[in-house]
């Protein structure tokens, strides 16, 4: 297998096509990228902004250039000797009539050849939650009518044209249709004969006859565990791999599959041993990627958690806790909040899935437990789940899963919300050595539920409720985990050498809550929380008259104010012209709305509180008002040190990503400043012309490069040049932490990569805000004094090259940071 040196993620759609990608191939080649890593390219719903709502797995989307455009990109990549990795979506497809398979199922029900392609419970009619009100009311209000489309009668609901099963409309003439188009009795009778049932969209959480992706009813689960379905889904994908046009695959949402390991084995067999393969998988806490999966690793969310661990200051943790508590007026029990969010999610938002599990438990085992007792037991277990899912399969229960389930059972019983005997009853099914068919189905469904509940309750609820330091509220992270440990960071990197040395190392993705440079900046708040709290206090006072007192409380409440000022600090550019402020506002207000709805405290996506949202958005809008000069000046002054520290943290984060065990992944545009907010803000068009100009006219010094915003790009280019020249060093090399000693020892991290006689040493600063001196005035170069790094014996007496400056340094048993960080904030030594 030719492993990637570095991948570059491109987001197709939103105006970015294959031909646009062709245009930047020379730029990516010069940057040192080895593989383009493409978002889903197969045909998706009209106007899709991401491509995960696939409508045809076997067609390359004409909206981004079709097969011809793809072939042009492929040829361009081959000419430049670059590879291509595709993001594939085996778990779900669009539940849209644009999807030919779904259209067939809607029209023909169980008679459709695709009836078993989707994860549908065919014990009843297919529920289609597309109406804005109950069916009978929609008919009475004249919103549903009978029409003719392409010569066939259909049920029309606004722009939706639902096909009618042929035998239910046989012989119906157009004249009859015209005369009875709004006949309520006929419409209801005709609807009753269809294999589907049109329902009010709000009923989906209570009753739905198909498995969905998370809470998205517009995405239906696919039964890719069926060999015939696997073949139909992967036909074009495998053709592209076997033709040599595609060199690697990224599997989206692998935890949603019925049996991830079996699927990956089947996929590996189909693509062969030389195709690079990674999975989107979130690892929680001490969880590791299953070592028997036939993959190179994950897409790298856990690396973000490692960087959070390294770049936050545990010395000020108590002060930050106190500052946040002072704003809230009370301490936060984070675990209680997590459990509360998960309970609401599993019992309300995923009520239909929970009801299905209750039925399966009652069918799988005899027992004297009522449906309510089983429901409570299931909810109690799911609430206590510490990871996304277990991997119990036809081969039995892994030892780690058996231990986890027993621990979960103990915690669920201690919580006191369910009958302990009922909890044991449910867990016996998960742990059974010889499961019946009903038990096997229960296991599959249970494991497909815990992940979505965790994701929606933590990533999309808790992360918007607990705002102490929002840089830690990131995919792959857990704000309850302790941070600020160099030792723990080294342990994680050493573990990667054996667990997934070739997995991706991500810092920004299309799913991250904010861009990598916004997080790098916000980490610095942890160094001086009292100064931040004082600043927030001033800003709240400046805008106190903008807080509206509503019947259900103030809007915004103090916690939301704390969130807003952090979020603004993350994207602040320092420009205060009316045009610049307007641009920030246009990006910020949608983020505010999304944050409020995801928090689900006083508003949410299904039941919005318009008065509350309007009040908070009005407050946020005031932050950008051109006449709010006093605030802008104060904010700019307070955030300036964070911005300077963020530039240092950004270079540290980038150097480590480029040299740690794994394959560095660069999200589109993040070789420049990535100060994006959550999607869709992180999928905006990239100014590649500006980035090309940086390469063509490099800055004269690292300080100049930092000022113009090109330092990260320069670091990437020069480090990837070393990876290109010494691929085995980084693909197969060991990882050795290096000890930093001296007065500034807490402010640096260093490690070595070694393979045979090849060595590379990465040295980078940390906690720059609390480092003495004015970062801005000192050109971002720190005064390291007596701080030294202890070197391995093999390097004593050698001459090392600082790859980022070209300087040669004769070393003994130690090396002074003042010598290696003289002209550049970070160092990459080759010896």
TrEMBL record:
Alphabetical GO biological process terms: alpha-glucan catabolic process; trehalose biosynthetic process
Specify the Glycosyl hydrolase family 13 catalytic domain's residue ranges. Answer: 4-422
Organism superkingdom: Bacteria
Q: Which Pfam families match?
A: Alpha-amylase
Give GO terms: molecular function aspect only: (1,4)-alpha-D-glucan 1-alpha-D-glucosylmutase activity
Q: Which SUPFAM superfamilies match?
A: (Trans)glycosidases
Q: What is this protein called?
A: Malto-oligosyltrehalose synthase
Organism, per UniProt?
A: Tianweitania sediminis
Q: Identify the coding gene.
A: treY
